Amino acid sequence: MLSGSFIVDGQVQAVGFQQLTSLSSSTALTVPSSARLALIQASVQNVRWRDDGTNPTASVGNVITADSILWYTADPRNLKFIEETSGAKLNVSYYK
């Protein structure tokens, strides 16, 4: 479970939300055209990600541990995700 306080700066505006529940293969986000950053929460299982044009695998890539978040402030269109173990979910909020 997430703990602590989280503040969204008044300089950003929400422009979308997406939940990914099928992450058994490398999966890209469906990013709103105006989005410039994303708040990404992994739940249930750990998720791996890459943003360098190479697909992550279940054992290679940066890890978002279950029930933690990643603020991604570069172009979220470059991200790809995969679950380490079956059952992972991602909740993604997009901002401009």
Task: Tell me what the structure shows.
- The protein is mainly beta.
- The protein has one domain: Jelly Rolls.
- It has strands spanning about 15-20, 25-30, 35-45, 45-50, 60-65, 70, 80-85, 90-95.
- The strands form two sheets. Strands 1-8-3-6 form a four-stranded antiparallel sheet, with no helix packed on it. Strands 2-7-4-5 form a four-stranded antiparallel sheet, with no helix packed on it.
- It is globular, with a radius of gyration of 13 Å.
CATH architecture: Sandwich
Strand content: 35-45%
Mean pLDDT: 91
Rg is: 13 Å
Strand ordering within the main sheet: 1-8-3-6
Gross morphology: globular
Helix-strand makeup class = mainly beta
Number of strands: 8
Q: What do we call the CATH topology?
A: Jelly Rolls
Unreliable spans are 1-5
Beginning-to-end CA distance, first to last residue? 27 Å
Broad CATH class: Mainly Beta
Q: Quickly count the helices.
A: 0
